Amino acid sequence: MSLLLIWFVFTLGEKIILRLCPTEKETVELLSKVLNGNKLASEALAKVVHQDVTFTDPTLDSVEINIPQDILGIWVDPIDSTYQYIKGSADVKSNQGIFPSGLQCVTILIGVYDIQTGVPLMGVINQPFVSQDLHTLRWKGQCYWGLSYMETKIHSLQPSISKRNSSDTRSQLTTNTSSEAEFSHQFSAVISTSEKETIKAALSRVCGERVFPAAGAGYKSLCVVQGLVDIYIFSEDTTFKWDSCAPHAILRAMGGGMVDLKECLERNPETGPDLLQLVYHVENAGATGVDRWANRGGLIAYRSRKQLETFLSHLMQNLADTHT
C-alpha cells in the first residue's frame, strides 16, 4: 500500500506526518491527533480512504493503451475555488447553466503530463457539488475525464454533446451575417470576476451579452469542456499549472487546447496556436515560490482550433479599438 503523506504544522509548533496506515484503526488514531480528538470525524475519514473503489467506464474498457509510467508527472489541486467551498453557498442561481459562484464552482483537478515534453496527457475533473437533493440535502457530483496520447483521444462526455459542439462551431464559422458585429456576437466566453477592464470591454464587443463571470479556474475550464461557452479567457498570471493541467488534457482529447494569451496576442499571424500550448514541466525563469509554476501570460481554453483563430482575430481588433 502506497503512503499518502501530508504535512500539518500546528500553531503550537507540533508537526505531524499524516499517512495512510496499514490498518483503518491506525489511520483513525493518527487522524484523531489532527482533528483534536474528534473520533467520529476520524472514523468517517478513515473509512473512506481505506475502502476499495472500483471505477468502470465503457469508453475506457473498450480501449487498451500502455503509457510508460516513468514519463508521467502529476499536478493535483485538491480543492479548486477554496473560498466557494468554505463559504458553502448552495442557493446560487445559474445564468444559462453557468454558476457565477457557489459550491457548484468547486472542483478537484488531477492532471497528468509528459515530464519530457510538458504536454498534458490525462485529466480528471471532479465536480462534487452539481445538484442537491432538497429532502436529504445530500449533493450529487459528476466526474469528467480525458486522455490524449499519440493517436488515442478519448473522453467521458456523451457523443451527443461532442456532436453538438462541433455543429455549433461549424455554424458559427460559416453563418453569413449582415455585419461584423453580428458575426462576432455568436461567440461566448467565461471570465474571472477580476478580469481587466480592457479585456472586458473588448469581449463585450466580440461576444455581446454572452460574457459570463464565474469563480474557480477549474470550473471555468469545465464550462468550456461541457460546451456551455466557447472560450475561457484570463489575462492575469494568477492561475497555476495545477489549475490548468487537468482541463487542458481533457480539451486536447476533444480536439481543443489551452494556450498562452499573451503569446497569442503577440504572435505572428502565420503561426498556429499549436505552438503556443501551455506546458507543465518547466519553471518560470527568475520566479520564486508558487510563482515558479504560474501561467504567466494568462490563458485561453477552447474546443476548436478554427474557432480560436476566428475569436482571436476579433479580440485583437477590438483590443486595438479599445486602446485607440
UniProtKB/TrEMBL annotation:
Species lineage: Eukaryota, Metazoa, Chordata, Craniata, Vertebrata
Pfam families: Inositol_P
Gene3D superfamilies documented for this protein: 3.40.190.80, Fructose-1,6-Bisphosphatase, subunit A, domain 1 (3.30.540.10)
Protein's name according to its UniProt entry: inositol-1,4-bisphosphate 1-phosphatase
Record keywords, A-Z: Lithium, Magnesium, Metal-binding
Ranges for region Disordered: 160-179
Species of the source: Equus przewalskii (Przewalski's horse)
Family: Belongs to the inositol monophosphatase superfamily.
EC class of the enzyme, as a word: hydrolase
PANTHER family noted in UniProt: 3'(2'),5'-BISPHOSPHATE NUCLEOTIDASE 1 (PTHR43028), INOSITOL POLYPHOSPHATE 1-PHOSPHATASE (PTHR43028:SF3)
Enzyme Commission no: 3.1.3.57
